[in-house]
Write a structure and sequence with these properties.
- This protein is of the alpha+beta class.
- It is built from 20 helices and 67 strands.
- Strands 12, 13, 14, 15, 16, 17, 18, 19 and 20 form a nine-stranded antiparallel sheet that branches. Strands 46, 48, 51, 52, 54, 56, 58 and 59 form an eight-stranded mixed sheet that branches. Strands 9-8-10-1-5-11 form a six-stranded antiparallel sheet, with helices on one face.
- About 17% of the residues have low confidence.
Length: 1420
């Protein structure tokens, strides 16, 4: 066993309790504890009589009082002999450790153990007592701040007594007393003895020790795992031996000098072959899934997404640095894509592997943390990433994150101890697996049974790894070394042939990693792969540049790749096309060269994604006591509460069979908590409101809600609840009723269309609700939050509710023109430039779904929902309701139709009728039949009265003539009606008969998704026909490509036949197909919409050779809400073009991406919902990052333009891989060029509206931008007024500041500006440096002097770019000419170790910068 295996097996740590891992991570603190001596008769007399040669030693272990859990590793002192009678036993042994578990209940348990020989000569150990050593304390005189000697009282028994359930809070009953106060210690010990009968003190026995922080250990943290107790006399791999005779190497640790190592040409060979190994691995994975009770799993649906390799340097105690993660590819894939020189290596390696395909790493690995120590080893860990089966969300392909699709397992690992004497060589190592311990402490895939194998066969049955290594700062070696086998085989130095200057490889840029062309995957654990995206500040691993020939250059856009989960990188780019093949003409033209613009990568990551979780128990107590209305089900019982972190099992059949058909969706906004702010001077809003859109309901905007601070709320940033939401009344005061705000949506059969319920359930299962949070007073965006709605699926329960705590994330974009390059922070990591994501607060939200019975029977509910089949047939689907004379009496249906006047039905006929025209009304204004009867009766009564009164003969003759005229007009109208019916008879009969060949179908479509279906077309005639397919909507098209048809059928699971060359194409004309007599054919269609409409009507006409239709298909397309993976919100100057390049993450990390060959990049296509937006992507080389280019014209201020960008990674644009929603806010632009710390004044023109308004100006950076008037002022109607603006930037650079003018009465936005700052740093005249201790309570006061350079008395003003770190004793001062003034500085304490440069601006009476001082503060 070598040194690494020995140290690794001897230092296995027990991890802390899992609940401790869920708490916020704190910085680790180093300690030194010296166990000096043991006083008193600790060893019982009975032990001394039974045992001989009695010796004594101490054991120390970590113990968590809260969870009753021992963790870490028990440490032992050297054995010391005992004397009779018992006297002081001196140890004087230093003990070192570091831990981040800063809690009073984390203690160290010291046990006194005696060991001796029994009469038969065997060795026996016995516990003599134990003590509880407190590391952390809430008191000011805690052991962490005092280094005086302490006396530890000891108890009878063993430390196992701490696990007894009757023992409560032993840390509070333990006693640590100063060594000089022995009497006080005795009294304290007796008091604790009286309090706890289960712990008895040992009289007159104590342990003398000291405990103090040890910051000198911090540089060696990477060599010592956390919670590991080590002795100063112990040799730590990576540290030099101590100076002097003390031998304490950890008192002032000295690190060994690292050596750079390189690994090339890595080949992994698995037994018996890669194909059979992976086939068996998948089969066993399916069997395990079935045996765990998860149900049967289709082996064909389980696929390997990635083959990952983790490589890290391990010193036996732990990994020195975080292991590198790279992606392996099969050997045959590499042979098709690499150069000829590498292909020759592949061929040679294939011959040596006896035809078994290997996994190859196509890049070079750098190991800069190697140290010349026998315990330092390189660990190789081979991991496989599988796509997990659907079950959480029902449809794995629609989940919006790779984290929900992948599960990872380690299959093999290997360890290599390099011999530093050999500078380079080739190494072959056996792979290990099975149940033996490994550095990652996780389960590893089994190894083949080796019961019948020889030792030579056992070395290769688990597989081997072969690679070429080189130590030092050598370049990549091209000369092959002699192959060597065995883990300890000697290394032969490689011969370096002479190289011509043209063949020299280009050196890697300084600060970047060595050239690589294998994709570097994210270093994710299994728990991280199963979790949802977290907070915006995620760690990114960049991909270094590929090796280029001499004279070539690599742009930074090609050099880096950011594999984020749903993460996006922003780049600024020109949208001009790059012509790779210039056109030739007679006139001489300039040849356009391939050019890639130089852009700095901007890591935007998850700028609109917020982490969601369950509120803490303390927050739940405050929420429950605040009086929020309770959500009840239909039986007035509280809704079932669900933990939002629990997995959800979605069963569509259970949702459809639920007897509670109506769903009442409840959104309850409860509270908005504040977090610790890094933004200087950012004020907390007084009122807020929220905007969102749920399903296909109209976009919702909540009323303004008041933020009311709780008296018992915790400090901001501690995760406690600080402010609750209360509705605001009309007079501006908050409502005294119940707090919170509720929105309810009733989704039932009256709202949903037939067949839409399944779509709504799928929407809840996969969609994320995006919520924007706005300041109710300034109308500025505070941030955005996102919450998954899958917990709203009731799954047969009467009501469910889930309480969420969402992070509200704000994203700020800097100006694009000033962004030039990025700062390289380390291996493959680039500092984010231009994009800043900040967590503004935490939104407490409750989502609920309450089921209800249908109160009334919906009309037409007896009809079946539309068929979801992808094959549409015209049998039984026609719209013709006639034909009763041709059917039998048993199947005749009774139709009742109310007769109507022809003039009321046809407006054209009504215009030609004389009687109708005389009345002077249109078809809609004609009186009812009762009105006509009443007129006839009135006219008859008038005639009777005239006859009775003996009217004149002339009048009687006039009445008769009038009646004859009316009769003549009626006859003429009847003739017109008869002629009109004769003329329209053929057309009416034809339109009625066409309903017999018309098929109606409802299609539920989604934005950007290609909905595929087939229409069964039958030739009803006895003759053949050439049928033309005519479509009246361009969003519906016929699939004419047989391969596309075949792919769509395979995706839909359709088994109907596919025909080659089915259609005759005639350019832009409609396609045609040939049908034999009575022949039936399946016509493939594809509907795909890129507009965000709600309803569309499409008609397809199948015309025969003579132009007569033989079938009609009427489609009713209902667009369903779609999934939004990413939301971008840009603020841009009005009436200009926004040009933005958004970088895609690696295609295989996108959710919904097809699983293919890792060496191949699929085609990337992009579409936009707005035809006026230019959206495109360019084809790049394999392995290069993909960029989506946008060019949008902004409108006049304050217009908001929104559109969708849809990304596809398949050939036929069938299913979107990503869907983005982009908001573009057009604002008035104001350019300001200024100096940091100096006041710059400008004026903005305000124009009045139609009425008098009371307005106020609000800004996004109130400490850097001031307005005059400051408060509320009156804006007269149609008037012109100046708004004076003063800008004093705290830092140099370019950024945006938003300025809103708001009507305070109606809370409407009157005007909005985008202030574009271009700030330069002033000339620094003096520099200072100060060192401060971290964690000092009240800060430190310092003084500097300033001399007035003018001959007269002047007034000066003081400002700082870090007002939270530096305050002045006085903000302004006066000093006579030539005199010197002392400036008082007060530095605030810091809780973090590091450096900070603080600028002090000294301005004159006009606030112009006179001088600038720089103070470098070192916190240690």
């Amino acid at each position: 066993m070598n040194d690494w295996h020995r140290i690794f097996t001897q230092n296995v740590l027990v991890p802390p309790h899992p609940q401790r891992a869920r708490q916020p991570v704190k910085e680790s603190t180093a300690f030194q504890c010296v166990l000096k001596w043991l006083d008193g008769p600790i060893i019982r007399q009975g032990v001394l009589e039974v045992l001989s040669e009695v010796e004594c030693h101490l054991r120390v272990s970590f113990f968590d009082v809260t969870y009753r859990h021992f963790f870490g590793r028990t440490w032992k002192t050297t054995v010391k002999p005992t004397k009779r009678p018992p006297s002081r036993i001196v140890f004087n042994e230093p003990l070192y450790f570091h831990t981040s578990l800063n809690h009073p209940h984390i203690v160290a348990v010291v046990e006194v153990v005696a060991e001796g020989k029994k009469r038969d000569g065997t060795l026996q150990t016995s516990s003599c007592g134990f003590g509880i050593l407190r590391i952390f304390s809430n008191q000011p005189n805690s052991p962490t701040s005092a280094s005086q000697d302490k006396r530890l009282r000891l108890y009878h028994g063993t430390p196992r007594a701490l696990l007894h359930p009757l023992l409560q809070d032993p840390a509070e009953r333990s006693s640590d007393s100063p060594a000089s106060a022995s009497q006080v210690a005795g009294i304290t010990g007796m008091r604790h003895h009286a309090e706890n009968k289960h712990m008895t003190l040992i009289e007159n026995c104590s342990l003398q020790y000291t405990l103090k922080p040890h910051p000198a250990l911090e540089p060696a943290f990477h060599l010592l795992p956390e919670n590991l107790l080590v002795s100063g006399l112990q040799q730590i791999p990576g540290l030099l031996p101590a100076h002097g005779e003390s031998g304490d190497a950890l008192r002032k640790p000295r690190l060994q000098k690292p050596i750079m190592g390189h690994l090339d040409d890595l080949f992994f060979t698995l037994y018996p072959s890669l194909e059979k190994f992976e086939e068996e691995l998948l089969e066993l994975h399916v069997q395990d899934h079935f045996q765990e009770g998860c149900g049967p799993l289709d082996g064909g649906g389980l696929e390997i997404l990635e083959r990952r390799l983790r490589v890290g340097v391990h010193n036996g105690l732990g990994f020195v640095q975080r292991p590198q993660v790279v992606v392996l590819v099969p050997e045959m894939d590499v042979a098709l894509t690499r150069s000829a020189s590498f292909s020759r290596k592949v061929v040679s390696s294939s011959k040596t592997s006896s035809g078994s395909q290997a996994l190859v790493l196509r890049s070079r690995l750098r190991l800069p943390e190697m140290v010349g120590h026998p315990a330092f080893a390189v660990i190789f860990q081979l991991e496989y990433v599988f796509n997990s089966p659907a079950g959480v969300d029902g449809n794995a392909a629609s989940v919006t994150s790779l984290s929900n699709l992948a599960c990872m397992h380690m299959v093999r690992w290997a360890v290599w101890n390099p011999l530093l004497e050999a500078g380079s060589g080739r190494v072959t190592l056996p792979l290990q697996g099975g149940i033996q311990p490994n550095p990652s402490h996780c389960l590893v895939y089994k190894v083949p049974s080796a019961s019948m194998s020889s030792e030579e066969v056992k070395q290769v049955e688990s597989g081997t790894v072969r690679f070429q290594f080189s130590l030092g700062s050598e370049e990549h070696l091209d000369a092959p070394a002699e192959p060597v086998s065995g883990p300890k085989a000697e290394r032969q130095p490689a011969r370096k042939p002479p190289m011509s200057p043209s063949s020299l490889p280009a050196p890697a840029p300084r600060g970047l990693a060595a050239p690589q062309d294998s994709p570097v995957g994210p270093g994710l654990s299994i728990s991280q792969l199963a979790a949802s995206p977290r907070s915006p500040t995620q760690h990114c691993v960049a991909r270094p540049t590929s090796q280029l020939p001499h004279g070539s250059r690599a742009s930074p856009t090609q050099a880096q790749e950011f594999p984020l989960e749903g993460g996006i990188s922003h780049l600024e780019a020109d949208l001009s096309q790059t012509c790779l093949v210039p056109e030739t003409s007679i006139a001489e033209q300039l040849q356009e060269l391939p050019f890639t613009p130089l852009h700095a990568p901007i890591v935007a990551g998850t700028q609109t994604r917020s982490s969601a979780g369950q509120p803490s128990r303390a927050s739940m107590v405050l929420l429950q006591s605040s009086g929020f209305p309770e959500i009840l089900d239909a039986n007035k019982q509280p809704a079932e509460a669900i933990n939002p972190t629990d997995p959800v099992t979605f069963n569509p059949q259970k949702e459809e069979s639920d007897c509670l058909q109506s769903n009442e969706m409840v959104l309850q906004f409860l509270a908005f908590s504040r977090v610790a702010q890094d933004c200087r001077g950012t004020s907390w809003p007084k009122t807020v409101y929220f905007t969102f859109q749920f399903y296909r309901f109209p976009p919702a905007t909540t009323p303004r809600l008041q933020l009311v601070q709780l008296d018992e709320a915790g400090q901001p940033g501690s995760g406690a609840l600080t402010h609750i939401l209360v509705p605001v009344s009309r007079d501006g005061t908050f409502d005294a009723g119940s707090p919170g705000f509720q929105l309810r949506y009733m989704v039932g059969p009256g709202f949903l269309k037939p067949g839409e319920r399944r779509c709504f359930a799928h929407y809840l299962a996969v969609q994320t609700l995006q919520i924007d949070v706005w300041d109710g007073d300034s109308l500025l965006l505070i941030g955005s939050a996102a919450v998954q709605m899958k917990h709203l699926l009731r799954q047969g329960r009467p009501a469910v509710q889930a309480s969420h705590e969402l992070e509200v994330v704000a994203t700020e974009y800097e100006q694009d023109t000033m962004v030039v390059s990025g700062d390289v922070l380390g291996f493959g990591r680039v500092k984010p430039i231009g994009v800043h994501s900040v967590v503004k607060g935490r939104l407490h939200l409750t989502l609920a779904n309450v089921g209800h019975l249908c109160e009334q029977k919906v009309r037409g509910c007896s009809t079946l929902p539309p068929s979801r089949s992808r094959v549409i047939s015209n049998d039984g689907a026609s719209r013709f309701s006639g034909g009763s004379l041709l059917t039998s009496g048993s199947s005749r249906r009774k139709h009742v139709v109310q007769a109507q006047k022809l003039a009321d039905v046809d407006s054209e006929l009504a215009a030609m009728l004389l009687t109708h025209a005389r009345q002077g009304t249109g078809p809609r204004d004609v009186g009812r039949e009762s009105d006509a009867t009443r007129r006839r009766k009135l006219e008859r009564m008038k005639s009777v009265r005239l006859q009775e009164a003996g009217g004149e003969l002339g009048r009687r003759g006039t009445s008769v003539l009038a009646q004859q005229s009316v009769r003549t007009q009626h006859l003429r109208d009847l003739q017109v009606i008869a002629a009109y019916r004769e003329r329209t008879k053929a057309e009416s009969i034809t339109s009625l008969l066409s309903l017999a060949i018309t098929t109606e179908h409802t299609l539920h479509a989604t934005l950007g998704v290609a909905e595929f279906f087939e229409f069964v077309l039958k030739n009803p005639h006895n003759t053949q026909h050439t049928v033309t397919v005519e479509i009246d909507n361009p969003e519906l098209s016929v699939i004419v490509d047989s391969q596309e048809w075949r792919d769509f059928k395979g995706a839909a699971g359709l088994h109907t036949p596919v025909e080659e060359d089915m259609f005759h194409l005639r350019g832009s004309l409609a396609p045609q197909l040939y049908l034999r007599p009575h022949e039936t054919a399946h016509i493939p269609f594809k509907f795909q919409s890129f507009s965000a409409g709600q309803l569309a009507m499409v008609q397809v006409l199948f015309r025969a050779s003579g132009g007569k239709p033989i079938a009609v298909l009427c489609l009713t397309v209902e667009l369903q809400p779609h999934v939004v993976d990413q939301v971008f919100r840009f603020y841009h100057p009005e009436l200009s073009f926004l040009k933005k390049a958004i970088r895609l993450p690696p295609w295989h990390t996108l959710p919904g991406a097809p699983v293919g060959m890792l060496g191949e990049d699929p085609p990337v296509h992009v579409r936009c919902s707005d035809p006026n937006v230019i959206c495109e992507t360019q084809n790049v080389g394999p392995g290069e990052p993909r960029d989506v280019f946008l060019k949008v014209a902004s409108g006049p201020s304050p217009e908001i333009k929104d559109f969708f960008v849809i990304i596809y990674s398949d050939r036929w644009l069938a299913t979107p891989t990503q869907t983005w929603q982009v908001y573009l806010h057009s604002l008035q632009r104001v350019d300001v060029s200024c100096v940091a710390g100096q006041l710059t004044r400008l004026s903005l023109v305000l124009r009045g509206t139609q009425t008098v308004r009371k307005v106020r100006a609000f800004t996004s950076h109130p400490q850097e931008l001031k307005t005059d008037p400051k408060g509320v002022f009156v804006l007269p109607p149609h008037g012109v007024q100046d708004l004076h603006v003063g800008v004093r930037p705290l830092r140099a650079g370019s950024r945006f500041i938003h300025l809103n003018l708001v009507d305070v009465d109606s809370h409407q936005l009157v005007a909005s500006w985008l202030v574009c700052l271009s700030c330069r740093q002033p000339l620094i005249s003096k520099a200072f440096e100060i060192t401060l201790a971290v964690g000092e309570g009240k800060g430190v006061n310092k003084r500097i002097t300033y001399t007035n350079p003018y001959p007269s008395r002047r007034t000066f003003h003081l400002h700082s770019d870090h007002p939270e770190l530096l305050r002045f004793r006085e903000d302004s001062f006066q000093v006579a000419g030539g005199e010197t003034h002392t400036i008082g500085l007060q530095f605030a304490p810091s809780q973090r170790v590091g450096e900070e440069e603080i600028l002090i601006y000294i301005n004159d009476h006009e606030d112009k910068n006179e001088e600038a001082f720089c103070v470098k503060v070192i916190y240690q």
